[in-house]
């Protein structure tokens, strides 16, 4: 019985030793992964990117996304003018891009790293606020429509100028 307990003890001890080596090796691998794990600093309107989209992006790209928010383009501009730096991606409205370029608040984009640019129509990539598309990439596009009740608005609305 004494021999059996000694052998059992050695097996358990060997198992614990192997487990600790495995855990240590696994920890080293995890540390290496964490060293290579990059952080993407994103600055956009709040609720612009759903949490599940951010999480999926992080998983697919082995990175962490730091998502800072602003409530208006004017707030974004003020924060950048006040010295906020370190953002990899900002998502302003089109009209603000000219001011960001003029204020030297954004850097040109290395388009060689963006493989899907060939899929963007020239209608969206050659735009008045960044004619050379040096500083911006279109993200979304849409239109604004107005609906009014003609019982209350008697003027015929034919253009933005009328408004």
Molecular structure report:
This protein has helices at residues 2-36, 51-61, 73-81, 94-102, 122-125, and strands spanning 38-45, 63-70, 89-90. It is α/β, with parallel strands linked by helices and 163 residues long. The protein has a three-stranded parallel β-sheet with strand order 2-1-3. Helices cover 42% and strands 11% of the residues. The longest helix has 35 residues, at 2-36. The chain starts with a helix and ends in a 38-residue tail after the last helix. The protein is built from five helices and three strands.
Beta percentage is 5-15%
Rg calc: 28 Å
- Note the main sheet: 3 strands, parallel
Given as residue ranges, the uncertain stretches (5+ residues, pLDDT < 50) are 1-20
Q: How much helix, percentage-wise, in residues? A: 40-55%
Structural class: alpha/beta
Strand line-up across the major sheet? 2-1-3
Silhouette: globular
Number of strands: 3
The total of helices stands at 5
- From N to C, what is the helix and strand string? HEHEHEHH
Average pLDDT level: 81
Cα distance spanning the termini: 97 Å
């Amino acid at each position: 019985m004494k021999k059996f307990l000694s052998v059992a003890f050695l097996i358990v001890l060997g198992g614990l030793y192997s487990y600790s080596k495995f855990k240590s090796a696994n920890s080293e691998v995890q540390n290496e992964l964490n060293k290579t794990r990059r952080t993407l600093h994103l600055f956009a309107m709040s609720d612009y990117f759903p949490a599940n989209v951010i999480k999926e992006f992080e998983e697919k790209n082995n990175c962490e996304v730091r998502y800072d928010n602003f409530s208006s383009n004017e707030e974004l501009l003020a924060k950048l003018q006040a010295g906020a730096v370190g953002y990899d991606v900002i998502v302003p409205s089109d009209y603000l891009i000219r001011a960001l370029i003029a204020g030297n608040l954004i850097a040109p984009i290395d388009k060689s790293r963006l493989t899907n640019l060939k899929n963007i129509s020239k209608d969206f990539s050659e735009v008045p606020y960044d004619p050379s598309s040096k500083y911006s990439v279109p993200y979304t596009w849409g239109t604004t429509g107005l609906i009014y009740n003609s019982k209350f608005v008697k003027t015929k609305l034919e253009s933005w100028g009328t408004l």
